[in-house]
Every structure is written in structure tokens, then in C-alpha cells.
Amino acid sequence: MRVAITGATGFLGLHLLRELLDRHRTITVLSHAGSRGAIDRIRAFLEVTAAPDELVRRLPERLRIVETDLTQPRLGLSRSDFTSLADSIDVIWHCAGDRRIDATLAELRPVNVEGTRHLLELAEVGRRRPRMLHISTAYVAGSRRDGTVKEELPDDSGGFENDYERSRYEAEVLVRDWAARSGRAAMILRPTTLVSDRPGVPGNALRYMVERAEATAGCAALGWAARLPRRIRPVLRLISAPEGRLNFVPVHEAARVMTRLADLAGSGGVDVYHVRHPHDVPIEVVREVLAEFLPVRLRFVAEPPAGPTGVERLAEAHTAFMPYLTHRRSYDDSGVRALLGEPRSAVGIDRDYLVDCVRPGRSGRRVGAQRHSHPEHGRAERAERAGSVELGCVLRFRGLAPTVEDLREAVAARLWRVPTLAYRTDGGHRRRGPLDPARHVHAHPVGPDGLGTAVDEALAARLPRDRPLWEARLVHGHAHDEWAVIVKAHPALLDGASVVEVSRRLFGVEPIDAAPAHPAAVGDPGACARVRRLLPPATRPFATRGSTGTRRLAWLGLDAERLHPAGADQDALFLAALAGALRDCADVPWRRGPRPVWALVPTPSGAAEPGAHARPTRVRLPCDQTDPARRLALVTEAIRAAHPASGARWHARAATSPWQVDLVAGPIHRWLRRPYAFRGSPLIGAVPFGGLPRGMPFGMFLATFEDTLYVSAVADTGLPAELAESLCASWSTALDELTRD
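-> C-alpha cells emitted (741 positions)
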């Protein structure tokens, strides 16, 4: 049987394709024209989901990639190519679609409606009379909020909650009319809300809804509220049904049910099936999930508030998911049960699972005792909910990219050099055990100029909690004769300096020796305990923006000699230039003009072996100072007066409290003093990125590699998109002011 599928690189499409590869020798993938690298994205997904090596290796032989455009007549193909394609297909899986619930009908129709029409034309002209398998959604039931939705073709008499539902309904009407007119068989599959807690898998509907809610005007304007204790945050009242419920189904289980249904003979007409989880989720659980990520206290009410607050007025126009909070309906799946038996699921859909679906690996149940090695101790779990604390670096190599198997083999042979990487949680204690590189080293192929996108995706995907907290991603395809490795770890396992040393030991070829000592902290170890019992509060220059918990990275490469003027302290130059960049950058949302800013500076301990040794230092940045020379003098004085936090628990908390610091400023390291190569590919650059503890939306980091100075900025996606790039450029300008003779 010859099978074709649209949307094979999307959320559901990847899981469907995985099931189809177990059933068919070859598959035709109708990929979107211009979106190169479809086979690489499919390969990366198979590797992330632990597909057999033989399947991954033979993937190019088993997939036929045809670039099409669903929005164009004949799918954008010539007449002869269109006819040839139609004559080569027995079954068409139509999985592609625009699933934005907040988009307009004009935006949705080209793909969801016209795309379906053009695909039906392909099926109609095919000599093999292909069968159409159309993926719709259970939400074509529209705004009907009670009762049971039957497995039958709906009508639009009740209206729809949004234009997305209407567009999917119109597509179903096209399939029904085509089947009746041509006398052909079709199957319409209606999944409920598809979710997944797998890291590295494209975003699902629940994650999209929460991220949209986080980025809306209402929540963005309340970024300051995330710093408050939850009990005194602003209240947001949302209308919901007291007995409301929603249905979420794991996407891999939905794909398995769909392919099993397709294997069975149909009625010859249009068969409709609901694909759902056996158990609904009470609306109160959904409220708890939303409360994990939004900077407000959510309160569900049965009636619209008589007098909406300012918070509620801000949020009113930006919460497309709100109508679903009133749903009490259920979905009949008697047709599925008649064919496949009583539904069963290996996944329990509860609050923790749904939290992981929004941010994979963030659930409190998955955070183990490794956090206790970090100075923040119990804060690590809470930090995971509101911001990423993970850190790492981007290593760039020149030459032919190795395979992911080559990289895993090299890592396996060198793991003995970094014993700490084998530590994991076991019964509440940190213990070493066997380590499988295949679970930590993954491929991440991208298209041209896609390195930045790969880094952003790596920052967004949280490290799985069922293994030691580190990973390495092999990135290739972004440039000719270049590849990269993104190394990432949790600070409970490694600090910034240790990530660099681990990278050298795993991917370097020179003899292993002790790591070079890093600059020691300046200051009297007892000074803080005597004079800083009461710490001045932070300025919070980013308080007018919301925190989404996801990050973007920008970096700039400069001549390293610019940071080495005679007699200058490099730490002071870095921080003074940062103060000047913050002062002059137009994208920094100052509310009342530049003011002093408090930076959290993780100071290396100088330990020879990698680990979580860094200690937090709180340094005042004089952003209100107009004179560059005076600014440098003030920063130098602040460094001398500060020192890393002691082991006292109260001090560590004070140093990292969002009320006491505004941003993170990474210390200066002489990264990778000697050049090295990985199997003949020389290292040509190393870009650092640090973690952003809870409530801190911005950080800037600095490192030198050979003759290049890399300054990088990590910004929460709730901040303006151009902020990270503009601050890197502003930092370079501010450094010139400080070093000018």
C-alpha cells in the first residue's frame, strides 16, 4: 500500500509518521515547499524518541519527500507532476493544518479549508482511487457546552467558540461533500486536546495556549507580580463551569489509535471517530496548571464579575482559551470502542503531567535531590516553574559534521574524565550510576542560518528529570563547512566554569590536566556578615514586562584585546560596560529613568574538578552615572566591597532574591586557553549562556576564546525581541567609552 501524509513534521504528524513507518516500507511526505530539512527534522524526532538505529539509518531510503503548497491549486505542482503524484497513492493522511485558536478566519482558511480542497482534488484524479484520512478536531462541536457530542457529522447551528473551530468544520464539510459526490471512502478522526511531556517534541496545544496567555498584554504588564508572594498577587477572575471538564490525550497514544482505526475496513462512506482519553480532567486541575505559569492568583467564578478590575480588563481581550473553561460536554467514542475495545491509557492525566506538557521536565515531582548541591538549595524546584536556571555554551566547529553516533561514541569514551556527569537522584540522595550517552547526546539538524533557532529551542526544552541533568545537542545544516554542539546543564550539577571544563574534556583532544584557576573573589570574607544585614532592594528596570519562563540568546564576537587595556580590572570593565549599556539602551523599559541596578554575579571557586562550585555575589551597577570613568570607579569599589555569599542559608537566599537583584551578569573566564579539534574539526568559537533564576528576566555573560571576545545576552521572551541584540551592541559601545584614551 502506497501512503502519503501531509504535516509529517508537525506535532501530531511526527507521531503518526512513526506509527506508519512500522506498517509501510515507503511513505510519501508532502512537505511544505521552501521548508528545507524535513527529513532532518524527522530524523531528529526519531532519535529523541529512541527509535531503532536501523530505522534512523534507513530513513532516506524509506521516505519520498515531495515539496508542495497546500494553499495553491494542484498543490503548487505542474499538471504532469500533480497527476503523477495522484496516481502513485493509495491512502492520503491529511494531518497538516493551522491550529492557532486566536487567528482570524481569513488567516486560517488558506491552509485549513483551501488546503483540504486541493488535497481532495489530488485524491479525485488519482487512478488508484486513494482513501482520504482527514485529521480534524473534537472541537468542531462548536460552542455547545453540555451533553454528549456524537460521532457524526455536525452542523453549525450552535456557532463556534472561535474561527479555528469554524475553519475545521468547513474542512469537514468539504470531505463529506466530496465523498458523497465521488462515491469514495473517507475517515474523519477527531482528537481532543493533544499533549505531550516529551522534551524536544514540537509544541502542543496546551503549551501554545499558556505561552499566549503569558505573553498577552494583561500578564506582560504584571511581570512585577511574579516577584510577590503568591498570597498577595493580583486576582484574576475567570468564568468557568463548576462541574467543567476537558479531555487531554497524549499525542503518541492518539497516533496509535488513529493508525489502528485506519488498518480496519471502513463502511465505504464517511466514518467519524472521536480519539479521546478514557478520563476527563476537572476544570479545577486546569486552573492549577495555569496558576503555575501566570503571575496572578486565578479565581474561577460562575458569573461575569459585576465590576472587572484593571487586571481583568487587561486580560479580557487576550485569553482565547477562556470559553473552554465553561465546557461540561463529553465525547462519544462508541465507534472506536466497537472496533478497538474499551479504551485504555498508560498515562494518567493529572496536574503534574499537564505542567510537564507546558514546560517539559518542570513538574515538582521530577526535580530530585541534585538541587541540594547548588547554593540555592530548595529554590531550584521553584525556579523551574518561573524561569530556566539551566546554563551552558555553544561550541562552533569548522569541518564536516560528525554523526550523532560518532559524538556519542566519543562522549562514552571520555566520561571517565568527568565523574560528576554520572550523578543522578536515587531515593533522595545523589548517587553515581551507569550513564547512557544515547540519552544525553542528541542530533538537532536545522536549515540554513538556523543555529540561533536551535539554541532557542535548546533553551526552551527543559532537561528530563529521570537522568543526570545535562545534555549535548549536535547542530548541523546551518552553514557550509560548520557544525556546533550545544552543551547544557543544571546548576545543581555544574556551574558556568565547569561547563567549559566539561566541554574541553568531552570534545577536546589535548592531554587532560588540572583546570586553570579562576580569579578569586575580592573582599573581606566577613564584611558582608557585618555590614549587609539589610540589603537595599533592587530597582527592577524590567518590571513592566512579563516573564514567560522561556528565553532567547544573542551574542556578539569582538576582538579580545579590547578588554585588556593596561592596568584595568577586567571584571570591573565588564560590569561597568554593562551599566553603561543598560543606561543607554533604548529597549530597557526604565520607568523613571536610569537608576542603580543590582547584578547577581556567580563567582567561580577555583576548584580543579567540575561541579556546582560557584557562589553568588551581589554587585551594584551605577546605571545612573553619566561619566564613564566615574562609572568604572564605582563598579571597582563595589567589587571590592562585595564577596561571594557564604554558606549561610539566609545569605544565599538574600543574594538571589528577585527583590534584591535585577539581572544576572556572568563572570569573566579565560575559556579554553588552548585551541582544540574534534576528529579533525577545529573549534572556532565558544559562546556562553547562563541560567536565569526565578524572577530574573535578563542576563549578560562574557568569555574569551583565543583572540575573540564573546559577549552574550539571555533575555526572557516576554521582553522586546530586539533587546538581547541591542544590549550586546550597546555593551560594545560602552566598552569603547571606558577604554578610550
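The CA atoms of residues 388 and 442 lie 20 Å apart.
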